[in-house]
Amino acid sequence: MFAIFHSTRKSSVIAAIGISDAKQGRVSPVLNSSGIGTYPFQQLNSTCLSQEMFWSLWSWLPIRITVYQPTLLFTSEEHGYSLTTLFTKVENHSPTVIIIKTSMGEVFGAYCSSPWRKRNEKAAFGSKQGYFGTGETFVFTLLPEMNKYPWVGIEGSTSNDSKGTGLFMAADNYMLVIGGGNGQAIYIDADLRFGNTDTCLTFNNRPLCPTKDFEIQVIEVIGFVGCETP
């Protein structure tokens, strides 16, 4: 699958990358081309995303990220159904995009703004890290409908319970969670087989699939070349 990018965003994103990144070829081909037009991205080999889905997702990303080449860090079809393996493949990359295709054909996921290795860091007073991440994190649906659910703090929360609006990312050896407060936008078990989705205060989202409980057919994690964290 090739994604197509229009270069009208070119002038607004060049300042967001380093010259060394451009010289080393880690940025999108659009920055290595002149003029206005469309340019193919490298082949992503996603089995979850159509070209239309990819373009919608790409348009939702922070502009500074769209200059980098997307790369498939993890796919259950190749790497198996293990949360431990997933973390091994992705934990030093930031940001990442999680894509889930259910056994019923729905496609949804999350843009995760912080590296997953933060799950192992200690919080204040030496306690284990709970939620982490930033307000750039968002959840989305791609099939049957395309919707983006950003952090409620971007537009101002309408909820009286502000304690639940900053719960972006959480994980341990047994589960991965996106969003919180009166529910979780995405919950995935350690076997990457089953999950749950519900409305949560962080994103004020609808459940990302109609049945709420879902079985995972394929799960993929996309990263960006040059965005590895030390």
TrEMBL record:
It comes from the Eukaryota. PROSITE patterns: TLDC. InterPro entries: TLDc_dom (IPR006571). Residues 47-225 form the TLDc domain. PANTHER family: GTPASE-ACTIVATING PROTEIN SKYWALKER, NUCLEOLAR PROTEIN 7/ESTROGEN RECEPTOR COACTIVATOR-RELATED. This is TLDc domain-containing protein.
